[in-house]
């Protein structure tokens, strides 16, 4: 089994999109295991260690209160967004983490620009915010179903190449703004194959206690598989930057996808170089005094 530090480097580099201009989604295998010979049981053991490390790093983030982290999850239906969030973040302090899920915008939200509801849900200093779906829905779902744009009270011509380029520019500028305010942005595309999606949809229908997860909309959207893949490819190509990178996560094996995600988060947080906050001498002295008073009570 690979050492954890080596594994972290391998996984972070392998699945991060660095050459965005030439990004080709077909080159990313949903079954990829990074050629490291890791078994499922070994992966689960490493996951326990990683959760402890992530919890320690979150404590430092919260204590320093100068940086924040925005984690974006996108993926086709059944790609495992909910399960990944649940397993990766299960060891952190819930007081410092918020999960927001962006469904179709309501009437009030449609009266504003598409980034309005996203901005107000962003993280404050010291916190981690997770987007289960995000502002990228506005260059994914609306691109596959451009008729949805008719509800958005938009001026001028919509759905043109210039229109989509404008949205990509807006997203890049917005994420750049966040980074300059101290928010680190990480974006994960959970990449499953069409065949794996078929199996997971069947599993939902075969297991009675899973049927509540099934939606007829999943079958309808499955018809647009190729259109969504193209939309994801375009979105990643135009918006993966150093300050807000995309990671294409092989998600056919859930346990492996979760391991890649948690190591990418840990790697990013370690690079922040945050330390335990130091106290002013007067404050430290007063705390020593309070400590002695509490000790004296027992005497």
From TrEMBL:
Record bears the keyword rRNA-binding: no
KW Transferase (keyword) present: yes
SUPFAM superfamilies: P-loop containing nucleoside triphosphate hydrolases
Keywords: Kinase, Transferase
A GO molecular-function annotation: polyphosphate kinase activity
Gene Ontology biological process terms from the UniProt entry: polyphosphate metabolic process
InterPro entries from the UniProt entry: P-loop_NTPase (IPR027417), Polyphosphate_phosphotransfera (IPR016898), PPK2-rel_1 (IPR022300), PPK2-related (IPR022488)
Polyphosphate kinase-2-related domain: residues covered: 38-271
Family note: Belongs to the polyphosphate kinase 2 (PPK2) family. Class I subfamily.
PANTHER family in the record: POLYPHOSPHATE:AMP PHOSPHOTRANSFERASE, POLYPHOSPHATE:AMP PHOSPHOTRANSFERASE-RELATED
Protein name listed in UniProt: PPK2 family polyphosphate--nucleotide phosphotransferase
Organism: Acetobacter nitrogenifigens DSM 23921 = NBRC 105050
Lineage of source species: Bacteria, Pseudomonadati, Pseudomonadota, Alphaproteobacteria, Acetobacterales
